[in-house]
């Protein structure tokens, strides 16, 4: 139980900081129907847990070893993230009712969530340092229990985040939603710009 609780708290610490995944879940809860936003949240959870598992077992070390792989993910990821932010800025939502919810296909939801979670090499490396370093302190037999705690923490965090935003979204009018979209869009573009800057820096060096 001790190892499970360690994984649970580590998982919360891993997901809690505001990042692209949290912004994705918040925006889905605000702009989609309850059912669609919950589906989007489940997809984020699946990719996030998969990333946590990969970080725990050393994908960050692989990226550090193969610089070309890090460069490729940085370039592609930065451009896609910036594109997502621009699309959010351009959205002209004037009604936040279920009937006015923008159409989000299953394919688009899955690909967008995949990009948000997996095309941020800095997050992969940071996650590897956090989870990978913790792995060294654990006995081998505790790995399944610890990583299960991390996975459950991810599911709890995003489900609760989605539920809270969904519950209170009716209090937001179209103008407030537009402002939130603009803020989220700017933050996402800044994330993408940071990734692009990191790519240029690595390329020069």
UniProtKB/TrEMBL annotation:
One of its GO terms (cellular component) is plasma membrane. The chain crosses the membrane at residues 12-30, 42-62, 68-86, 106-125, 145-165, 177-204. Keywords: Cell membrane, Membrane, Transmembrane, Transmembrane helix. GO terms for molecular function: amino acid transmembrane transporter activity. The keyword Transferase does not apply. It is found in: Cell membrane. It holds the Pfam family LysE. It comes from the Bacteria. Its main location: membrane. It is a multi-pass membrane protein. The keyword Transmembrane applies. InterPro entries: LeuE-type. This is L-lysine permease. The lineage of its organism: Bacteria, Bacillati, Bacillota, Bacilli, Lactobacillales.
